[in-house]
Structures are given as C-alpha cells and as structure tokens.
Amino acid sequence: MNFEEVLQEVGGFSRFQFLVLHLISFSRLVIPLHFLLHNFISAVPPHRCALPHLENYGAQADEETLELSIPRNPSGALSSCTAFFAPYGNVSNSSAVALPCQNGWVYERSKFLSTTVTEWDLVCDNMKFNQSLATFFFVGVTLGGVLFGNLSDKFGRKPMLLVSFVLGGIMGTLAAFSVSYTMFAVTRTLCGVALTGITITTISLSIEWADIKHRTFTGIIVSLVWSVGNMLLALLAYFIRDWRHLMLVVTSPFLPALIIWWWIPESARWLLVNGKVEAAQKFLSQCAKMNGKFNQTTVLETEVRQSRNVNTDSGASSTSHCTYLDLVKTTKLRKITACCGIFWFAVAFTYYGISFKITGFGLNMYLTHFTYAAIEVPAKVLTYFTLDRVGRRNVQAWSLIITGIFIGINTVIPTDYGLVRTLVAVTGKGFSESAFTTAFLYTTELFPTVLRQCGLGYTSFVGRIGSSLAPLIMLLEDVWEFTPPLIFATVAILGGCVVFLLSETLNTRLPESIQDVEEERFKKGMIEDPGLL
C-alpha cells in the first residue's frame, strides 16, 4: 500500500488537512510582509543639498531662493546632488562652481517620516548602497534555500520550521533597532535566511499531507497568503511612515506563528520514508480520528508498516540521507534539476523585476503595490482552474512566456498612455504570479520525498539569485531605459520554453524515492485508479 492509499484510509482530504492548511497559511503571512518591504522602508524621497545659510537661520527655502544655491539638471529640475560652492548672494559670480553636497541633505517628509535612505543618507553617490540592501536580503534568501533544504530532508520539516521562526523573529526585531547600515544589512540578510526556511518547509508540509485530488487546491490556498500579505503590506506602509515602526509591525506575526507551530504536525510521508514508523502512525491516527475514521485506527498500524516496506523496496532508506549531490545522481534527476533551475531563475527574476518597479505607471506606490497584489488573486483563481485541465507543464511554460510578451508590449507603449501601460503592466504581473504559484506546486511534484526539500532548496537558491539580480538590473536604466524590460522579457520567454522539456505531473502520486523518478513509478498512481477515490 502506497502513502496515497494510506491517506485515503484516514479520510483523504478532510478536517485534519483543512486544519493543517489553515495553520500553515497563517504562519506564512510573515513571508510577503518582508519580501517586498524594501519598496517602503528604503524608498527614496525627494531631496536636495543641505544649505547652512538656510537651515541654520530658518530662512524660507522657496524655489527662487534655492535657485541661488542649487543648479538645475538638464531636465530643468533642481539638482538633488549638487550645490553652488559660493557665499550666499554671490552665486551669480562666474567663479561659482557646482560641487557634490558638502553638508548632507534635506529630505521631503510629506510621504515618509523616515526611511533607511534618510537614516544613513543613501542618495547620490551612496545610492548603490540602498539598492544593495535588497540584494543583501535576497542573498540571505538564497543561502536559506541551500541551508534549510538539506536540513529539512535530514531532520524533518517541523524542527527546521521552528528554527526559521525563532531566527526570523530575532533578526527582524534587531533590524528595527539597527544603529548602523552594516547592522541593518546583516540582520536583514539573516532574516532572509529564515524566511526561506519557512517558505520551503511549509509548502512541503502542506502538499505532503494532501491527496492527489487536492494538491492543486492546497498549493493555490497556500499561495493566496502571499497575495493577501502583500495587500496588507501596502496598507500597513500607507499608515506607518516610519521605517523602524513598520519593521517592527511586519515582524510581529512571528510571535503567533511560534505558538501555532506546536499544532502543526510533522509530515507523515517524510517520517515513513525515513523509517520513523511509530511517529508516522501517531500523526496518521490523529488524522483518522479528526476525519471521523475511528474504525481505521486499529488496522492503521499494519497498513503504515506495509507502506514503510513499500518505501524501503522502492529505494528509500532510513539509514542514509540524501544530499544535494543526489540531485544530479541519475539521468532523469539531472534533467529535472537543470530545467527546474532555469525556469525558477526566470520566474523569480521576472516577478521581482516587475514588483520592484512600482512607480512610473501613473499611480502612487501604495496603490500600485496594492493593485499588483490584488491582481494576483484572480490570477491564482484562474491558475487553479487551468492547472487541473491543461496540466502543470503548460501553465508553467505559457505563464512565463506570456509574462515576457506583456513586458515587451509595455516597453513599446508611449509613456503618454499611462492608463494603458498600467493595465498591461498589471496583467503581466498577474501572469508572473501564476508562474510563481505553479512553480512551487510543480517542483514539489517533480522531486521525490527523499529529495523534495533539497530540490526546493536548490530551486529556491537559483530563483533567489534571480531575485537578487533584479534590483541591480534596474540600474541599467541609466545606460538605456529599455535595457531592463528587454532583459526581463527575454529571460521569461526562454525560461518558459525550457519547461516543455519536463514531464507532466497532473494526477500522479508523489514520487517517494529516486527509483520512483527513474522508473516513473509515480505515474502508476493516477487519480483515475478507483482504489484511490
């Protein structure tokens, strides 16, 4: 008896699975609150050079007065980074020279009371340090994928989830009280490490407790938390304009998540594959009782042991643990690993490339961020209905390709057509979210249980390289304004084409071992099998 049949014996997808899904969903709320937080806590407000003869004596800084001390850019706007080096009142003298700000900057405070930019003057020549903050965070996210991917396959999903919650809560709090740029960069990096641990362990837990028929539903519900969290982030950022206060508020969900952790069960599927039969039987018995299958608890022990024997025969071992090297151990795993890495890079690179560009579409940054998050909801609902009809592979491939096409279209639309550009950008964002939603589900179904967390850790690592590069690609606008969107569009289309090289996983049972993948045994557990219904 395989694990899918064991799940049917304990009630399939019923009250226990709904409870697990709700607990996991709430504990994931902290993830979106942090991932795009950079847009708000590191926003760059309008600024100019500080002028001692104005600031020290409270002189009125109207535009005519500022023109005497600050030169204009070629666009006609007052410079943000230079001022005339000359005594006040004598700047008309031909000897006056425009130099970089000598006395710091004055910031417009109407939109933000404070940001990391105003805290440490990350403007002008220091602007690269501000962009680097987002990259540091995603470097942490990248490292977290590698770290927690392997550890979760070795020690279990639940213990690593606890480590992630504790680390994230501590680092998020310390970041809010940072006394220097370096301290903030380090704590945000470590917070990124923790958030990836939460991401990959919870997605595995939720999918591994779901039966074949409800894997798509489970994946979409877990993914919807991301959209809800991003809408909440826009609202919180709108009302909380101080970056330290906002940092504390978005970190606060770690506390209830720690409490919820006690009620989240370990993956019985992982326990069985790793020979922990008694622990698996305990959670499966709880599942059976909550699902109203009281008569099944007496025969469950025999069935669980039979399932363990099947897993042992198929190559799972309780005495040896798989590592990242096993991802390239066999021919089919090498193909899966290579293709998943490519399309994950494209998914993350494109998604964050769009998400970080939240200005310039004719809407303020709060409304644009909220709109981007809101459009993800119908996109995910549409994804839910298409995944079980056209398959994971087609949805993954075409959502990426269409995202690239919409980015390209938006590039050629004149800036005067602000509404049209906004509609095209938001639609492209919806397809990019569909690609991200499908990526988690598709990857979980492609890799076997013994390597699932390593697979998710690896793909998260590659994907976060893409998300780390996305904010840096924005700097290429200074070279040619169309360079970033053309790069994003090309990567998305090429990544989508690579997906067609992978197998379809619709209506197949989850592979448990490397042998299951090589011999395609998981395809024998199709949903049409009446024994599973």
Automatic annotation (TrEMBL):
GO annotation, cellular component aspect: basal plasma membrane
UniProt cross-references to SUPFAM superfamilies, sorted A to Z: MFS general substrate transporter (SSF103473)
GO molecular function, one term: transmembrane transporter activity
Cited Gene3D superfamilies: MFS general substrate transporter like domains (1.20.1250.20)
Transmembrane segments: 18-37, 129-148, 160-179, 185-205, 217-240, 246-264, 336-354, 397-413, 482-502
Membrane topology of the entry: Multi-pass membrane protein
Residue ranges occupied by any Major facilitator superfamily (MFS) profile domain in the UniProt entry: 82-507
UniProt cross-references to InterPro entries, sorted A to Z: MFS_dom, MFS_sugar_transport-like, MFS_trans_sf
This protein's name: Solute carrier family 22 member 6
Taxonomic source organism: Scleropages formosus
